[in-house]
């Protein structure tokens, strides 16, 4: 009895293989192709997942995985080319919105397609070392949309323009920016870096070069440093809102170099407003700001320290010559201690109790005594 | 006793099996079917037809889902499979990614 059943099984399996011929594969593929069209046209509700999954399953099972995969590539590419055209056609400000909308559509479609082609993803693709469906979708998007000649440059220039507008005080749509930037990051960090971050940093350097030139002509050190600090914080805030967190260190380096490092000597030695004047006028807030900004650039603090040291020696010399004139040792010691106190306070409050400055201060006074 | 969280699995002959969603999602395929974005017909109506799976096999599969849930909760019993069902059952399991 059970033997007969087993024989039935063998016959059934044999029947399976006979059904499979290229026409069958064509038929299945056209069903799937049609489904992909419907998915891209937002018409998926009429489709049966099971039917599509089963068709994909059968294709792979009967060794037509190659046809399925290449068909997928062709169909998706064709759709993306069309999508590309509609994005290119968008006018002015709507360009980014259209791009964003199509990107969301594509992601949703991609997920659905990946779900119905899950069997291929699981079996055919690892065996042939081809790109999995999801990654394939991202790569095709990158190649056909982002890197399409008309879109690539327009995208970059729009992003840079919006950032420039924000720097000059306009309010921009940060949510939209965030989505677009995230799209670039999703496609690949090299895309983000090459297509956006590098040009962004170059343009930013140019911007801050011009801005710092403008400021240094018309502002005194205290005001200039205030402005520099504002810009620095602005850039950091911008990164947290819609750029990749890894960009923070890059953009802050740009600002630090252009606004601070390039003008450091001029700021310190500015007549009537430089570092020495800040010491003499007890400008704690300005000193603290200078300390915080200069510590960010190479040699910033060492130069500051050197200027402080030479200034202290000047004071010291002054005190000594005065004391000789007055012939009053108590007065001399008192004034010496007063000066030491004053600079102790400055280092404490404005310079974060920086030990290197403390040491410089102590050695200066030892030099005097 | 109609719990809202059930799905209906329909075999090739039209026999309907109503089981808990949790049990059905033991199958990765069914899980994808029900959680895929985009509103495929199955997710909308809560029922899935399997024209290539017979009722006998589908029934066994439903039993397997519940056994699997029990097993993962600690109740380690045996799952008995009649030998004549093995081939079709394995093909169905492959299909359903279970």
Give an account of the 3D structure.
The complex is a heterodimer of chains A (369) and B (98). Chain A folds into three domains: 124 residues, Cullin Repeats (5 helical Cullin repeat like, Up-down Bundle), CATH 1.20.1310.10; 116 residues, Cullin Repeats (5 helical Cullin repeat like, Up-down Bundle); 69 residues. Chain A contains 18 helices and no strands. The N terminus of chain A is likely disordered. Chain B is of the alpha+beta class and 98 residues long. Chain B has one domain: Potassium Channel Kv1.1, Chain A. A three-stranded mixed beta sheet of chain B has the order 2-1-3. The longest helix of chain B is centred in the middle third of the chain and has 18 residues. The mean pLDDT of chain B is 87. At the A-B interface, helix 1, helix 3, helix 5 and helix 6 of A face helix 2 and helix 3 of B. Chain A: This is Cullin-3B. Chain A: It holds the Pfam family Cullin. Chain A: GO terms for molecular function: ubiquitin protein ligase binding. Chain A: Keywords: Isopeptide bond, Ubl conjugation.
Number of strands of chain A: 0
Mind telling me the CATH superfamily name of chain B?
Potassium Channel Kv1.1, Chain A
Return residue spans of chain B where pLDDT drops below 50 for at least 5 consecutive residues: none
Which structural class is indicated by helix and strand composition of chain A? mainly alpha
Shape-level CATH architecture of chain B: 2-Layer Sandwich
CATH architectural type of the largest domain in chain A: Up-down Bundle
Domain Cullin N-terminal (chain A): 29-367
GO molecular function (chain A): ubiquitin protein ligase binding
Protein name (chain A): Cullin-3B
InterPro entries (chain A): Cullin, Cullin_N, Cullin_repeat-like_dom_sf
